[in-house]
Amino acid sequence: MNSFGKLFRISIYGESHGESVGIVMDGCPAGIPLKTSDFEAELARRKSGAKGTTPRQEPDIPRIMSGVFNELTTGAPVMVQFDNTNTRSRDYSLLKDIPRPGHADFTGQQKFGGYQDYRGGGHFSGRLTLGLVAAGVVARKIIAPAKVESAILEVGGSTQIESALDNAIEIQDSIGGIIECRISEVPVGLGEPFFDSLEAVMSHMVFSIPAIKGIEFGSGFEAARMKGSEHNDNIIDSQGNTETNHAGGINGGISNGNEIIFRVAVKPTSSTHQAQRTMNMQSGKMEELSIEGRHDTCIALRVPAVLEAAAAIVMADFMLQAQQTGRIFKHK
Amino acid sequence: MNSFGKLFRISIYGESHGESVGIVMDGCPAGIPLKTSDFEAELARRKSGAKGTTPRQEPDIPRIMSGVFNELTTGAPVMVQFDNTNTRSRDYSLLKDIPRPGHADFTGQQKFGGYQDYRGGGHFSGRLTLGLVAAGVVARKIIAPAKVESAILEVGGSTQIESALDNAIEIQDSIGGIIECRISEVPVGLGEPFFDSLEAVMSHMVFSIPAIKGIEFGSGFEAARMKGSEHNDNIIDSQGNTETNHAGGINGGISNGNEIIFRVAVKPTSSTHQAQRTMNMQSGKMEELSIEGRHDTCIALRVPAVLEAAAAIVMADFMLQAQQTGRIFKHK
Amino acid sequence: MNSFGKLFRISIYGESHGESVGIVMDGCPAGIPLKTSDFEAELARRKSGAKGTTPRQEPDIPRIMSGVFNELTTGAPVMVQFDNTNTRSRDYSLLKDIPRPGHADFTGQQKFGGYQDYRGGGHFSGRLTLGLVAAGVVARKIIAPAKVESAILEVGGSTQIESALDNAIEIQDSIGGIIECRISEVPVGLGEPFFDSLEAVMSHMVFSIPAIKGIEFGSGFEAARMKGSEHNDNIIDSQGNTETNHAGGINGGISNGNEIIFRVAVKPTSSTHQAQRTMNMQSGKMEELSIEGRHDTCIALRVPAVLEAAAAIVMADFMLQAQQTGRIFKHK
Amino acid sequence: MNSFGKLFRISIYGESHGESVGIVMDGCPAGIPLKTSDFEAELARRKSGAKGTTPRQEPDIPRIMSGVFNELTTGAPVMVQFDNTNTRSRDYSLLKDIPRPGHADFTGQQKFGGYQDYRGGGHFSGRLTLGLVAAGVVARKIIAPAKVESAILEVGGSTQIESALDNAIEIQDSIGGIIECRISEVPVGLGEPFFDSLEAVMSHMVFSIPAIKGIEFGSGFEAARMKGSEHNDNIIDSQGNTETNHAGGINGGISNGNEIIFRVAVKPTSSTHQAQRTMNMQSGKMEELSIEGRHDTCIALRVPAVLEAAAAIVMADFMLQAQQTGRIFKHK
Q: Is residue B40 situated within a structural domain?
């Protein structure tokens, strides 16, 4: 439920207002240089504070609790923990009765029978992605020289990001965005024909990131409107490089050596200052609700660091699997 | 690699031109009525023959090899096998040297070191989806009264399906399409907050279907262009029904009781009569290539039966997991 | 439920009196020479016919249904199927009401609600081990030059096997036995510290073989009666060879390069001509029951081929995992 | 590698001399009463201090870091952490060159390329079983009213435990022991026919406990010396109760409702004051070595709390699986 991966296997735990959140990375090869400061840059990218993100900030200090000795991984599970410090003792108990539209208040309540920790999103909180970012830092070291990068293509339907944010802040509503991720220097042969196709496993991981509602590889939905003669990528050398890259670097579920490209749709932050209507489960009456307090105008702004980490984690697992001879028998 | 699922677990095997293709369904509850004729309608929907699909037809006769006794499942693995009969002894060996653009010829060759069965797509063949359709028939029985339906929204960029097909046939090129899938009468509470979110597991399975290059839930990519106040679905009763369904029936990774809705993008069939360019790996020279023979003009036409089966399989696994008390402890 | 393994993953299916039994081997590396006749010798070792085994014989003809092309594995799942031919149409329905002591009649009935195929043991039948033997043949090729051998140490409490069998046949009762398995030329480093220790995974697989009720590694239960100074194996060279081998080739869950040694206890065949007492679930009265027909006097005689196969399957999976650089990071 | 279980899934991490050791329990149902003091009694049973155990003591204070809210589980992962406090800064670096007989020094060094944390056993340390004991406390709540109990049958080959310990202390050597575990009030129907038989999964978990070298169910190795007519347990009522319990409560891999009984062999503590010989990997010369310091004379004395926890964890997972209607389809 809270684990992912086959040979590089991660498990996350924690709640927004509990003691801590963190991650256990199992199957991490021994001998990878790793120290606390390695996490800083990526954690900073995920952090809030910039325009369009919440002004509430937590220090996000990673503590390596196991699996590292003399600043090198040992081969045992690497556990990275983040203490929760900025947990205001607000009263969240209203959420049990008055589920916020767009949030997991209603589904969490139903699934966990009212036992869920509802404070600040509890286990559903985006704060859990701190662990993903930490695992991504390790994964990037495993997959080097392959590299993962991403870019925000648009927010609020506009490629003019600055002005779209200004507008959203002015009208006190939240907006979504579209992010593109590219993985370069990928070896040929990662992924499997069906259930563990590169698209299948990547999308599985990517939809674990809160607020993502769509993913497309290469030309994606546009491919559905192309002719075969347009969409097929002509192969131009013996390494499998192609003239175009409509396939997004994947054929038959397997990496073909070109850049892996995919885009994700991030929905607008569910918390908005605008009034919404919902059912009060206690009274059985409809109520008007507007979410007070400090929240991200555009959560998509904070997704790139998490999305790249997610992609790196998937690639690390595939690469460790491929090291078993690329599934080809060595005749002895 | 070729298995999927946790409590309802399927494993597929076979090649296009081998002895047979088939599926093993493990974890199938005992006591489900099942006989060979139950598969007929769905297999017929998947079949070719209609306009825009290949005229080559195989009988696709399912044989239940285990797990059923007196026309009821026994609780042991249900194995369904399809003999391959229409396997022309054409010479496919050229594909080893001259990989077709858009196909898995190059990636399969690289991954499996030239040992792959390259005849007719081998293990990459869409023929493997016969097993998925068979498993979908069983899964539908498990999830009833929940229902899975789908519709082709457009092919070749056109909602006028008939004329889009006519045009593609005339210009001798292939086209893709977009399909929408809806799952109704879904219990609240299926799915998990992060790695096993309903979107995550569903997309994992759906990208196992060949030719799919994108998936979006609810408003999907359009959500990225909406305001939070527009996108959030107001909750209008104590069952969690919502006024709109931009979330596609899922909040926080968990079903909210509304219809689950998603759309997929199907790329144009990789085989096209149009000339393409590719590298001859033997000679090191570029060659022009056009794919002769009978193939689907629009493979998207045959996807609905497979897509619904895939969705039903995912839902069956989630429902079996939910039967363990919905993850809520019974105080004794 | 009916699958085992991580990178070399097997799934079994079938019933004693159904259409067929078989196995799907997933994760099998491409390029392994494999043809039907490769299975013959091991299948013959498993077969009945010798003194102390049932005179009922089936031909046990393996059919490779997928995953092999030009007598080499392709990297796709290898499916091997055995048709059931010698299935007498006896009436087995009494077993539903009158569970035989020592058999799975009662537990199967309870678990599967009466839907189980009770004919000839159904899915519980030892006939399912045909698939294990087939997978063992492939696994041996993967692990070579490592070798798996076993020997029957005793049957019916006697090391004089011939006379113990004669005696059991004369008194018309069944007997058990103890078998020792040795794996040689094992690389150092297979297995993990805790849950995937070599003992843990090996015992998991070995207890999947019907009738096995105990396993011990190295000195095993005798170790519990030794002093530390006696039990510890002195290391005598830089390859880790030890003077003695009380540890059975495993320290801290990981192979140490010496022979892996374990012994298993096989209970006496549950079917015996002697009278036993059991409850008639229909009438609620105790009944006397003696199992007519042809059965193995000592099923332990047929276990070695299956036990070696099981051991080879476990080693193959560990070796494929180890090929990912033995869990050590390559600095680039 | 460091995870176990299907629906109740645990992951352990940590090293003897690192920051902490701990466990993440995923799939824990919501609503189980749980507070820190619940762990005290079982942790105390595992603790050293009594005759025959090491006088070195650590406080072993459990901290619940996630998954509990208002002293009830939330359905999210429960993380329990134990800080390491009594970590003397001794010099352990000699172990890299001079592997101790019976320990994992050599295998750990080889598997992890010298990167392992070798201080005090590192990740191989018995201290990791603290997490198992914590998970066992939760598991017992899940399986109630089923109960797990164990007893030390013998140490050092003697049923006179007190005097056997006195003798071992006097001669300054270590000794092993045999422990019997019994699980009562077990529902019928837990376990699966082959790979997930109750014996298979239980042994997998039990061999994860350091120092265990053998396991037998019911009559175990003695069964191999019995006749079928002796070993078979006559069924005496409609609940499946049997006259005898040679099967240890399991037929065909599935619980039959009687007590589940198994015994394990615990080897003598590898650390002994007696002199042993081993290879100095640096100099290539044999050396004599005796392990100084405080260690357990008989580690078997501390195993019962861990063994019972392990058994409870396995049963909890099986029971959660069984709650999905016992694998029987409900006709709607």
A: yes
Q: How far is the alpha carbon of A207 from chain B, nearest alpha carbon, in Å?
A: 5
Which range marks the domain in which residue A125 is found?
A: 3-327
Query: Residue C273's CB: how many other CB atoms inside 10 A?
Result: 16
Q: How many residues does chain D have?
A: 332
Which chains neighbour A (Cβ–Cβ under 8 Å, 3 or more pairs)? B, C, D
Instruction: Read off the pLDDT of residues C154-168 as tens digits, 9 standing for 90 and up.
Output: 999 999 999 999 999
CATH number of the domain that residue B142 is part of: 3.60.150.10
Interface test with B, best of D8, D324, D328, D330 (most B CBs within 10 A): D324
* Per-residue model confidence as pLDDT tens digits over B61-73: 999 999 999 999 9
Q: Is D282 exposed, middle or buried (0-12, 13-18, 19+ CB in 10 A)?
A: exposed
Contacting subunits of D (3+ beta carbon pairs below 8 A): A, B, C
Number of domains in chain D: 1
The continuous run of DSSP H or E covering A231 comes out as helix A228-231
Are residues C108 and C124 in contact, defined by beta-carbon separation less than 8 angstroms?
yes
Q: Please tell me the distance from the alpha carbon of residue C299 to that of residue B182, in angstroms, as a whole number.
A: 53
Distance of alpha carbon D66 from the chain centroid: 24
In a domain, C292, yes or no: yes
pLDDT of amino acid C290 = 86
| Angle, CA of C78, C84 and C90, to the nearest 5° | 155
Residues of C in contact with B25 (CB under 8 A): none
CB nearest D74 (choices: A30, A81, A116): A116
pLDDT band of A147, cuts 50, 70, 90: very high
Q: Give pLDDT tens digits for B259-276.
A: 999 999 999 999 999 999
Residues of B with Cβ-Cβ distance to D141 under 8 angstroms: 329
Which chains would you list as touching B if contact means 3+ CB atom pairs under 8 Å? Answer: A, C, D
- For residue A9, the distance in angstroms to the closest alpha carbon of chain C comes to 13
Give the integer Cα–Cα distance in Å for B103 and D329.
42
Q: Which of D7, D323, D329 sits opposite B29 (nearest CB)?
A: D329
Cβ contacts (< 8 Å) between D231 and chain C: which residues? 102, 176, 267-268
A240 with B101: Cβ contact below 8 A = no
Question: In this structure, are residues B312 and B190 in contact, taking their beta carbons and an 8 Å threshold?
Answer: no
Residues of D in contact with B141 (CB under 8 A): 329
What is residue A82's three-state secondary structure? strand
Measured in residues, chain B has a length of 332
Is 0.90 exceeded by the ipTM? yes
Structure tokens at A248: 């997004």
| pLDDT, tens only, B269-305 | 999 999 999 999 999 999 999 888 778 999 999 999 9
What pLDDT sits at residue C293? Answer: 78
Residue B332 counted as domain residue = no
- Rounded to whole angstroms, the Cα distance separating A215 from B264 reads 10
Q: Write the pLDDT tens digit of every residue in C272-288.
A: 999 999 999 999 999 99
Chain C residues with CB under 8 Å of D327 CB are 111-112
User: Is this structure's pTM higher than 0.90?
Assistant: yes
Beta bridge partners of B263: B180, B216
Q: What's the pLDDT at A59? A: 83
Interchain CB distance below 8 Å, B324 and D329:
no
Contacts of C176 in chain D (CB under 8 A): 223-226, 231
From the candidates A6, A7, A329, which should be mutated to test the interface with C, based on the most C CB atoms within 10 A?
Answer: A329
CA distance D195 to C80: 18
Nearest CA in chain B to D194: B76
**Domain membership flag for residue B52:** yes
- Report the distance separating Cα C141 and Cα C32, nearest Å: 7
Name the β-bridge partners of B286: B279
Sheet containing A9-14, strands listed edge to edge, beginning at the edge strand earlier in sequence: A3-4, A9-14, A20-26, A78-83, A62-66
Tell me the torsion sign for CA atoms C230, C235, C240, C242: negative
